Amino acid sequence: MPELFRRWEPDFPVDVSSAIAPLRRGRGDPCLRQDDAGRLWLTANTEGGPGTLVLVCRTDGAVEAKAWGGGAEVLLDGLPALLGADDDDSGFVAHHDAVAWARRQRPLLRLGATGRVWDVLIPAVLEQKVTGHEARRSWRELCRRFGEPAPGPAPEGMRVPPTPRAIRSIVDWNWHKAGVDVSRRRALLAAASVAPRLERAVELRGAEGRALLRKVPGIGVWTAAEIAQRAWGDPDAVSFGDFHIPAVVGHALVGRALDDEGMHAVLAPYAPQRQRAVRYLESAGFSRPRFGPRYPVRDYRAI
Protein backbone atom coordinates (compact mmCIF):
# COMPACT_ATOMS: atom_id res chain seq x y z
CA MET A 1 0.00 0.00 0.00
CA PRO A 2 1.48 3.40 -1.00
CA GLU A 3 2.75 5.60 1.82
CA LEU A 4 2.40 9.38 1.65
CA PHE A 5 4.59 11.72 3.68
CA ARG A 6 4.35 15.34 4.71
CA ARG A 7 6.41 17.61 6.97
CA TRP A 8 4.60 20.58 8.45
CA GLU A 9 6.50 23.46 10.04
CA PRO A 10 3.96 25.54 11.99
CA ASP A 11 4.61 29.16 12.86
CA PHE A 12 3.44 28.53 16.42
CA PRO A 13 4.38 25.96 19.10
CA VAL A 14 2.24 22.86 18.68
CA ASP A 15 0.94 20.69 21.51
CA VAL A 16 -0.15 17.66 19.53
CA SER A 17 -1.47 15.73 22.54
CA SER A 18 -3.85 18.48 23.70
CA ALA A 19 -5.14 19.10 20.18
CA ILE A 20 -5.85 15.40 19.64
CA ALA A 21 -7.14 14.66 23.17
CA PRO A 22 -10.85 15.40 22.51
CA LEU A 23 -10.86 12.71 19.81
CA ARG A 24 -9.73 9.93 22.14
CA ARG A 25 -12.48 7.68 23.46
CA GLY A 26 -10.74 5.93 26.32
CA ARG A 27 -7.41 4.14 26.54
CA GLY A 28 -8.64 1.29 24.35
CA ASP A 29 -9.91 3.49 21.53
CA PRO A 30 -9.43 1.41 18.35
CA CYS A 31 -9.28 4.56 16.20
CA LEU A 32 -6.62 6.53 18.11
CA ARG A 33 -3.49 5.07 19.67
CA GLN A 34 -0.09 6.15 20.95
CA ASP A 35 2.63 3.56 20.42
CA ASP A 36 5.69 2.85 22.54
CA ALA A 37 7.74 5.28 20.45
CA GLY A 38 5.35 8.12 21.28
CA ARG A 39 3.84 8.28 17.79
CA LEU A 40 0.13 9.12 17.53
CA TRP A 41 -1.92 6.97 15.18
CA LEU A 42 -5.47 7.77 14.11
CA THR A 43 -7.92 6.47 11.54
CA ALA A 44 -10.73 8.19 9.69
CA ASN A 45 -13.29 7.98 6.93
CA THR A 46 -12.82 10.68 4.31
CA GLU A 47 -14.30 11.59 0.94
CA GLY A 48 -11.36 9.70 -0.57
CA GLY A 49 -11.97 6.58 1.50
CA PRO A 50 -10.61 5.18 4.77
CA GLY A 51 -7.19 6.30 5.92
CA THR A 52 -4.58 6.00 8.65
CA LEU A 53 -2.43 8.90 9.85
CA VAL A 54 0.62 8.76 12.13
CA LEU A 55 2.21 11.86 13.66
CA VAL A 56 5.73 12.43 14.95
CA CYS A 57 6.87 15.66 16.65
CA ARG A 58 10.45 16.72 15.95
CA THR A 59 12.71 18.69 18.28
CA ASP A 60 12.77 21.62 15.84
CA GLY A 61 9.01 22.06 16.24
CA ALA A 62 8.04 20.42 12.96
CA VAL A 63 5.42 17.70 12.72
CA GLU A 64 6.06 14.82 10.35
CA ALA A 65 3.14 12.72 9.17
CA LYS A 66 2.69 9.56 7.15
CA ALA A 67 -0.62 8.31 5.81
CA TRP A 68 -2.03 5.26 4.04
CA GLY A 69 -5.27 4.30 2.34
CA GLY A 70 -7.70 6.07 0.04
CA GLY A 71 -8.02 8.91 2.53
CA ALA A 72 -4.26 9.45 2.96
CA GLU A 73 -4.04 12.67 0.97
CA VAL A 74 -7.11 14.16 2.65
CA LEU A 75 -5.70 13.41 6.09
CA LEU A 76 -2.35 14.99 5.25
CA ASP A 77 -4.03 18.08 3.81
CA GLY A 78 -6.04 18.40 7.03
CA LEU A 79 -3.05 18.08 9.34
CA PRO A 80 -2.66 21.81 10.16
CA ALA A 81 -6.36 22.22 11.03
CA LEU A 82 -6.29 19.01 13.07
CA LEU A 83 -3.55 20.52 15.23
CA GLY A 84 -5.21 23.92 15.62
CA ALA A 85 -3.73 26.03 12.82
CA ASP A 86 -7.17 27.48 12.00
CA ASP A 87 -8.01 28.26 15.61
CA ASP A 88 -8.24 31.97 16.48
CA ASP A 89 -8.31 33.01 20.14
CA SER A 90 -8.01 36.73 19.44
CA GLY A 91 -10.40 38.68 21.59
CA PHE A 92 -10.51 36.03 24.30
CA VAL A 93 -10.43 37.61 27.76
CA ALA A 94 -10.25 35.69 31.03
CA HIS A 95 -13.02 37.13 33.20
CA HIS A 96 -12.25 34.83 36.16
CA ASP A 97 -9.02 34.19 38.01
CA ALA A 98 -9.42 30.44 37.49
CA VAL A 99 -9.61 30.84 33.72
CA ALA A 100 -6.62 33.20 33.72
CA TRP A 101 -4.63 30.68 35.76
CA ALA A 102 -5.69 27.79 33.51
CA ARG A 103 -4.64 29.75 30.44
CA ARG A 104 -1.20 30.33 31.91
CA GLN A 105 -0.92 26.60 32.62
CA ARG A 106 -1.92 25.68 29.06
CA PRO A 107 -0.47 28.42 26.85
CA LEU A 108 -0.23 26.08 23.84
CA LEU A 109 -3.89 25.02 23.91
CA ARG A 110 -5.56 25.21 20.52
CA LEU A 111 -8.87 23.81 19.31
CA GLY A 112 -8.24 21.26 16.59
CA ALA A 113 -10.68 20.31 13.84
CA THR A 114 -11.07 17.07 11.90
CA GLY A 115 -13.04 18.79 9.15
CA ARG A 116 -15.54 15.90 9.05
CA VAL A 117 -18.76 15.21 10.92
CA TRP A 118 -19.52 11.50 10.62
CA ASP A 119 -16.63 9.94 12.53
CA VAL A 120 -17.14 12.18 15.58
CA LEU A 121 -20.93 11.89 15.39
CA ILE A 122 -20.96 8.17 16.18
CA PRO A 123 -19.22 8.34 19.58
CA ALA A 124 -21.09 11.55 20.48
CA VAL A 125 -24.41 9.76 20.04
CA LEU A 126 -23.13 6.70 21.90
CA GLU A 127 -22.29 8.93 24.88
CA GLN A 128 -25.86 10.16 25.27
CA LYS A 129 -27.24 9.51 28.76
CA VAL A 130 -24.93 6.63 29.66
CA THR A 131 -21.70 6.32 31.60
CA GLY A 132 -18.41 6.86 29.82
CA HIS A 133 -17.58 3.20 30.43
CA GLU A 134 -20.72 2.07 28.61
CA ALA A 135 -20.18 4.45 25.70
CA ARG A 136 -16.55 3.45 25.20
CA ARG A 137 -17.46 -0.24 25.29
CA SER A 138 -20.10 0.30 22.59
CA TRP A 139 -17.65 2.34 20.48
CA ARG A 140 -15.03 -0.41 20.65
CA GLU A 141 -17.56 -3.08 19.79
CA LEU A 142 -19.02 -1.24 16.79
CA CYS A 143 -15.58 -0.41 15.42
CA ARG A 144 -14.33 -3.96 15.92
CA ARG A 145 -17.32 -5.62 14.28
CA PHE A 146 -18.32 -3.07 11.62
CA GLY A 147 -15.26 -0.90 10.94
CA GLU A 148 -12.58 -1.78 8.41
CA PRO A 149 -9.05 -2.70 9.50
CA ALA A 150 -6.81 0.37 9.57
CA PRO A 151 -4.88 0.78 6.29
CA GLY A 152 -1.10 0.60 6.42
CA PRO A 153 1.17 -0.58 9.25
CA ALA A 154 -1.06 0.64 12.08
CA PRO A 155 -0.78 -0.95 15.54
CA GLU A 156 -2.58 -4.25 15.86
CA GLY A 157 -6.31 -3.97 16.45
CA MET A 158 -6.78 -0.48 15.05
CA ARG A 159 -9.96 0.01 13.04
CA VAL A 160 -11.58 2.71 10.93
CA PRO A 161 -14.92 3.95 12.34
CA PRO A 162 -17.97 2.28 10.76
CA THR A 163 -19.25 4.02 7.64
CA PRO A 164 -22.87 5.18 7.33
CA ARG A 165 -23.52 2.15 5.14
CA ALA A 166 -22.07 -0.17 7.78
CA ILE A 167 -24.22 1.43 10.49
CA ARG A 168 -27.34 0.94 8.38
CA SER A 169 -26.45 -2.75 7.98
CA ILE A 170 -26.49 -3.53 11.69
CA VAL A 171 -29.37 -5.75 12.78
CA ASP A 172 -31.13 -5.43 16.12
CA TRP A 173 -29.29 -8.31 17.75
CA ASN A 174 -25.90 -6.80 17.02
CA TRP A 175 -26.99 -3.41 18.37
CA HIS A 176 -28.00 -5.26 21.51
CA LYS A 177 -24.63 -7.04 21.76
CA ALA A 178 -22.89 -3.67 21.42
CA GLY A 179 -24.92 -2.29 24.32
CA VAL A 180 -26.70 0.37 22.24
CA ASP A 181 -30.29 1.03 23.28
CA VAL A 182 -33.17 1.84 20.95
CA SER A 183 -33.01 5.64 21.24
CA ARG A 184 -29.30 5.85 20.40
CA ARG A 185 -29.50 3.34 17.55
CA ARG A 186 -32.40 5.32 16.05
CA ALA A 187 -30.33 8.50 16.20
CA LEU A 188 -27.39 6.79 14.51
CA LEU A 189 -29.59 5.28 11.80
CA ALA A 190 -31.26 8.64 11.17
CA ALA A 191 -27.87 10.34 10.88
CA ALA A 192 -26.51 7.58 8.62
CA SER A 193 -29.39 8.09 6.21
CA VAL A 194 -28.40 11.74 5.62
CA ALA A 195 -24.68 11.57 6.45
CA PRO A 196 -23.37 13.31 3.29
CA ARG A 197 -25.64 16.30 3.92
CA LEU A 198 -24.47 16.62 7.52
CA GLU A 199 -20.91 17.29 6.36
CA ARG A 200 -22.10 20.74 5.24
CA ALA A 201 -22.20 21.71 8.93
CA VAL A 202 -18.40 22.09 8.79
CA GLU A 203 -18.79 24.78 6.12
CA LEU A 204 -21.61 26.55 7.95
CA ARG A 205 -19.84 26.42 11.32
CA GLY A 206 -21.03 28.06 14.54
CA ALA A 207 -24.69 28.10 15.54
CA GLU A 208 -25.82 27.50 11.96
CA GLY A 209 -23.74 24.35 11.68
CA ARG A 210 -25.04 23.06 15.00
CA ALA A 211 -28.61 23.81 13.91
CA LEU A 212 -28.13 21.65 10.82
CA LEU A 213 -26.96 18.74 12.98
CA ARG A 214 -30.00 19.15 15.24
CA LYS A 215 -32.33 18.51 12.33
CA VAL A 216 -31.54 14.83 12.81
CA PRO A 217 -33.97 13.18 15.24
CA GLY A 218 -32.07 12.22 18.37
CA ILE A 219 -29.38 14.90 18.03
CA GLY A 220 -29.96 17.72 20.49
CA VAL A 221 -28.01 20.61 21.93
CA TRP A 222 -25.50 18.45 23.80
CA THR A 223 -24.72 16.08 20.94
CA ALA A 224 -24.47 18.87 18.36
CA ALA A 225 -22.01 20.72 20.61
CA GLU A 226 -19.86 17.62 21.10
CA ILE A 227 -19.69 17.13 17.33
CA ALA A 228 -18.99 20.80 16.62
CA GLN A 229 -16.12 20.92 19.13
CA ARG A 230 -14.30 18.22 17.19
CA ALA A 231 -15.44 18.62 13.58
CA TRP A 232 -14.69 22.33 13.24
CA GLY A 233 -13.16 23.31 16.57
CA ASP A 234 -16.17 25.42 17.52
CA PRO A 235 -14.97 27.80 20.28
CA ASP A 236 -18.49 28.59 21.50
CA ALA A 237 -20.14 25.14 21.46
CA VAL A 238 -20.68 24.41 25.16
CA SER A 239 -22.06 20.96 26.01
CA PHE A 240 -25.19 22.10 27.82
CA GLY A 241 -26.98 19.11 29.28
CA ASP A 242 -23.77 17.40 30.39
CA PHE A 243 -23.72 15.57 33.72
CA HIS A 244 -20.25 16.78 34.72
CA ILE A 245 -19.44 20.10 33.03
CA PRO A 246 -21.79 22.44 34.97
CA ALA A 247 -20.25 21.17 38.22
CA VAL A 248 -16.69 21.60 36.87
CA VAL A 249 -17.38 25.13 35.66
CA GLY A 250 -19.35 26.05 38.76
CA HIS A 251 -16.79 24.88 41.31
CA ALA A 252 -13.95 26.47 39.33
CA LEU A 253 -15.59 29.86 38.82
CA VAL A 254 -18.06 30.40 41.69
CA GLY A 255 -17.19 27.70 44.21
CA ARG A 256 -20.32 25.58 43.87
CA ALA A 257 -22.07 23.29 41.43
CA LEU A 258 -24.30 24.89 38.80
CA ASP A 259 -27.13 23.73 36.60
CA ASP A 260 -27.27 24.54 32.90
CA GLU A 261 -29.01 27.86 33.51
CA GLY A 262 -26.39 28.92 36.02
CA MET A 263 -23.54 27.83 33.75
CA HIS A 264 -25.09 29.75 30.86
CA ALA A 265 -25.07 32.91 32.98
CA VAL A 266 -21.53 32.45 34.30
CA LEU A 267 -20.10 31.78 30.84
CA ALA A 268 -22.03 34.58 29.11
CA PRO A 269 -19.09 37.06 29.22
CA TYR A 270 -16.97 34.60 27.22
CA ALA A 271 -19.27 34.50 24.17
CA PRO A 272 -18.45 33.79 21.36
CA GLN A 273 -15.66 31.69 22.92
CA ARG A 274 -17.43 30.01 25.82
CA GLN A 275 -16.20 26.53 24.96
CA ARG A 276 -12.63 27.78 24.95
CA ALA A 277 -13.04 28.84 28.58
CA VAL A 278 -14.38 25.37 29.43
CA ARG A 279 -11.48 23.67 27.64
CA TYR A 280 -8.96 25.77 29.56
CA LEU A 281 -10.52 24.69 32.85
CA GLU A 282 -10.70 21.01 31.91
CA SER A 283 -7.20 20.84 30.42
CA ALA A 284 -5.72 22.51 33.51
CA GLY A 285 -7.17 19.79 35.71
CA PHE A 286 -10.34 21.28 37.17
CA SER A 287 -12.93 18.60 37.87
CA ARG A 288 -16.14 18.11 39.78
CA PRO A 289 -15.79 16.95 43.42
CA ARG A 290 -15.83 13.17 43.62
CA PHE A 291 -18.67 12.45 45.97
CA GLY A 292 -22.24 11.26 45.70
CA PRO A 293 -23.70 8.11 44.14
CA ARG A 294 -22.35 6.73 40.90
CA TYR A 295 -24.49 5.56 38.03
CA PRO A 296 -24.53 1.76 37.74
CA VAL A 297 -22.99 0.32 34.61
CA ARG A 298 -25.66 -1.39 32.55
CA ASP A 299 -24.89 -4.36 30.32
CA TYR A 300 -27.47 -4.45 27.55
CA ARG A 301 -25.89 -7.62 26.21
CA ALA A 302 -27.09 -9.58 29.24
CA ILE A 303 -30.79 -8.62 29.08
From TrEMBL:
Recorded GO CC terms: cytoplasm; protein-DNA complex
Domain of life: Bacteria
Keywords: DNA damage, DNA repair
Gene Ontology molecular functions: alkylated DNA binding; DNA-3-methyladenine glycosylase activity; DNA-7-methylguanine glycosylase activity
Signal peptide: none
The keyword Cell membrane appears for this protein: no
Gene Ontology process terms (BP): base-excision repair, AP site formation; DNA alkylation repair
Keyword DNA damage tagged: yes
Protein name, per record: 3-methyladenine DNA glycosylase
